[in-house]
Give the backbone structure.
Amino acid sequence: MYRISLEGRGDFGEWRDAARACLAAKIPPHDMDWRLRNESAGLFGFEDDSALPAAKGDASVSVPAAFMPLAQAIVCHSDPSRFALLYRLLWRLSDDRTLLQLKADPDVARARNLEKSVRRDSHKMTAFVRFKEVPLPEGIAGRRRFIAWFEPDHFIVERKADFFQRRFTDMDWLIATPKGSARWDGETLETSRIAAEKPDLTDETDELWRTYYANIFNPARLKIKAMTAEMPKKYWKNLPEANLIPELILGAEARVLEMAAKAATEPQLFHHRIQAMAENRPAPALPDADTLEGLKHEARSCTLCPLHCTATQTVFGEGPSRADVMIVGEQPGDQEDLAGRPFVGPAGKVFNEVVSQTGMDRSKFYVTNAVKHFKYEPRGKLRIHKRPDVTEIEHCRWWLTREIDLVQPKLIVAMGATAVFALTGIKGKLSDLRGKPMPMQGDRLLFVTVHPSYLLRIPDEGKKAEEMRLFREDMATVKKMAEQICVNEVRSMRTDSTFIDMSLGIDLARNDG
Ligand code: URA
């Protein structure tokens, strides 16, 4: 019997080197004893690994491509038997390269289970890490610093570290766990396999998390089983919002009844709706920024919905900090996600073209999206756009309303149904709303048109040309309205006259009910 002892803290190279040597020496799995290093001395009285016999013949090992990702995931599992299982698979693969396709084989089935558990743990880490800001020492200027404590089941910190580096690249952070840590300082990503001590992270920001969570909690959508599957109880102790959950569940029925009673009497006016939505918006984990730059900075670390897990970065709006016209699209696409700027891909090209054909200047607009993270489905090497769902739009509305508060546009152009829903809560047909300016809060107007990517998807050339013409017409109306806004601004400075000039033919009363 040969004994190999390993640190066993998620280092694939450690197991691979040992396994290669054993395979080269032709030691069958039943003659191997794989142990964790800290066990081998204390518990069993073994001091050193037994010397392996010399390699017999060719020491190179060739495995099917599917084995590598499987083995890399499994070495992160905390089950002590994982090394022996992997070695058994490796040994058997040299006789049968199709082994991994035999789903009913007990070794293969066990391996797939371990892999699944590591993947699940990794996913939970991306969803449940909660950063706390650590104040910089007095008198020291620099990047903001954040710390998080997380308790994974497996040794996944190294596996997920580069995800956090990509997502939170513009802040310094440390993620400490009992199974190792990761640290990013803007230049270097460091990981350690040493168990970290739990830092004391209870402070007033927990209260902010709880307020936010209570605000977004929708009792009508409560599904306790699905919720505990998605947010298993073992993670609750490190989630500041979690101690609200039992209370919210208990009060859910009463709140549903209260919501139903309210819905029956609520007036259906846009400006009332958007005001109410803005007032009910969930608070973020950090204090409100009072500049666009500050808001953009905060949005970079937004984790309000799971889309942040797979997107490259938050794509925030861009344009003048005060703009008469705000353009709202749906969500960033593939190219926007990589560039970090809205409307720079194919839909952006259509939009830019039409804007300049109608004689407008895009740089005068504030251009943004209803949802700030790219939602997609991986298909091979491609990332296929997926429409954001209601919950994602509702979470992201917090950012959109803050952008509107700061930019103070006089005219908002909603391109497509998602933008309309984000701005008004209305899910109706776009054609019923299109091309008719509608009042929002105060003197603000909403104008609805199609999304430029809709134009790109029309297969029939004739229909496409016609739809393009209508979109141009809509943008020409936007131009007229924007010019009218300017004229009125000058006029109201002189005479304090009524804000909207009715000569534009905007029938405010018609759309007000
Ligand atoms: N589609 C959008 O709605 N927004 C973008 O930024 C790009 C494509």
In short: The pocket of uracil is lined by residues 329-333, 336, 342-343, 345, 347-348, 369, 453 (CB under 6 Å).
